[in-house]
Amino acid sequence: MRKLTLISLLTLSAGCMSVYAETVHVSTPKTSLVLDAVKGEPLKFVYYGNSLGGNDITNINSAVNQEFDAYPVYGLWPQKEAAMSAVHADGNMTLDMGVSDVRTRTEPDGSTVTTVTMADKVYPFYVDVNYRTYPGSDVIETWTVTSHDEKKPVTLTRFMSGYLPIRRNDVHVSQLYGSWANEGKVEEAPLPHNLKVIKNKDGARNSHTSHSEVMISLDGKGNEQSGRVIGAALCYGGNYKLMFDTDDSDYHHFFAGINEENSSYNLKKGEKFETPALALTYSEEGLGGVSRNFHKWGREHRLANGDKLRKVLLNSWEGVYFDINESGMGQMMKDIADMGGELFVMDDGWFGVKYPRKNDSTSLGDWTVDTSKLPNGIKGLCETADSLGIRFGIWIEPEMTNSKSELYEKHPEYIIKASNRDAVEGRGGTQLVLDLANPKVQDLVFNVVDTLMTNYPEIDYIKWDANAPIMNHGSQYQTADNQSHLYIDYHKGLEKTLQRIREKYPDLTIQACASGGGRANWGILPYFDEFWVSDNTDALQRIYMQWGTSYFFPAIAMASHISASPNHQTNRIVPLKYRTDVAMSGRLGMEIQPKDMSDEEKEQTRRAISDYKKIRPIVQQGDIYRLLSPYDQKGAASLMYVSPDKKDAVYYWWKTEQFVNQQLPRVKMAGLDPDKEYTVTELNRVDNAPLPYEGKTFSGRYLMSNGLEMPLSHNVDWNKRNDYASRVLLLQSK
Ligand code: DGJ
Fold it and tell me: How far is the CA of 515 from the centre of ligand 1 (A)?
């Protein structure tokens, strides 16, 4: 191990400097990342964890037994996994990088970026390794920018965003997995020897199956409230790869970045290749601490309009599916307005002239209103919404077309398709993906939004759907030698287009939907205000999916709707009270035909919406504390949100199994101020009598040590009994 003889310490804080540094300290309020940057030598990783100062930073190098490059490259000692590999213009497949410069700068958004530039010792090939911190946030974003001055293109064959060595010690990894209508399930396992790979190859969307985020519990099984946990989130909407290599060293080696499979990139002289950010956080407050760090960073720095409260909406999809017509939309708007909702969203089925959109097999790309369904067009609907005092939103799927559409007839060259082969068609047997690498397609997609917004500036919300993966490898736009750029350039094109949209329409609310939860990712969320968690709206299954999704994403971004019973996906019969209590733990909305609801149900919903508006700042801007996991199969699940000043909180409890004389655990609360006194008010009460502690006051200390007993069932008349029970409690202090 190389000994430190000289320590010149660079602590990154606001301000702009260009300093040679031997020890680089990237610090956040509660965490430190320490690197060793010696000119001409590879950048070394020294430490990532709890905040360090003084002697610890000075002496830390003497306390480690193995040293690793902070951004390992392939070529010399090729046995090891690397974060980057490349083939030089002359065919040489090796890299040998040394530090040439360390700089810090303050960005206009207040963040501080440190850049360590590394240069190859022989070739004019450069990699900038960047680290970004924000004041008050415990997340560090890391990414790289690669460039070169070689005569011909250099082919990048691996290009991870970041690498982290993790000391072995019964390390467990929690990840999300699933499938359509079953997204965001939690799986936790100890790290095996050899490779553990989490990857996506969908091309267009990337969170139906696995997710590009993980929690790494350093001391055995993850605990919600305590223990050392690293959180890692790759902020990228395309194909990704997360890799844990456990070799014969004392460390696991974690890599995360764009999935390089079938995606080698020919980088031209002077061109820059920028990887997406890998967001890292560390907490000693367990899995919950990592979630809170991600949520705060996400709301403050990544999610579009993360500081604005979201409206309560009704979406037309499960209410009418493709059966859109003017009077039906008017009736739904009136119903949601009567129940206190603030926004109505018309889903799929409103467009197509030559090919009217009657089902999922035609018309994508033809974004002209079908006046046989809507004689007064979108204008008429906006006027109705306005007269009812609500806002209007609309569904589009602008990255796609159908082979039965006017767009495809005019521009067959716009779709993704391998040369010499027929196009592969998806949803409805005819869906095709547009080639966003093509600047003309980028303009087309931008114009879908721009035309709608120019014609109907009243539109307040867009649901942006994406219901197909990339179904064959081929770009009609790219040259033959750059076909491997398809996946990467699709997302570059998408991002460029979304940036243009956001520059022009910063206040428009845009939902990322992709056959449900296919776009829950921090790479896409800077352009979106929220995402649709899943096409499955069944309340019981949502508890599991929303629990997992909350590991990395805050409630403000999780669209969560009350839908019909029996549920359209699971056929489960679930009482309105339970459906409401689950939906109210995210961004509350409705996905139902209100005319099928009884007056009593409408009244119950009206009260719930009114109460949700009161707790909305706590749910949408508060800190989450997950208390009892549904995955632990204890018969119930529970979580709570606490306002940042700890004055108020909302507690949720849902029974997940129904047996007679069950012994359910009494759930301790968390995150409260032990010295504050909280008064309990039950929301959405259906019981004939209030809970015994209704209106009573308890200290945070008592609630966090003991919690409150939840009755096993609801105290309702015989004819209203069912096999569900749930509670929402508002806790308020003075
Ligand atoms: C898939 C989405 O996830 C649904 O919510 C709905 O918008 C349909 N597409 C419409 O085709």
Answer: 6
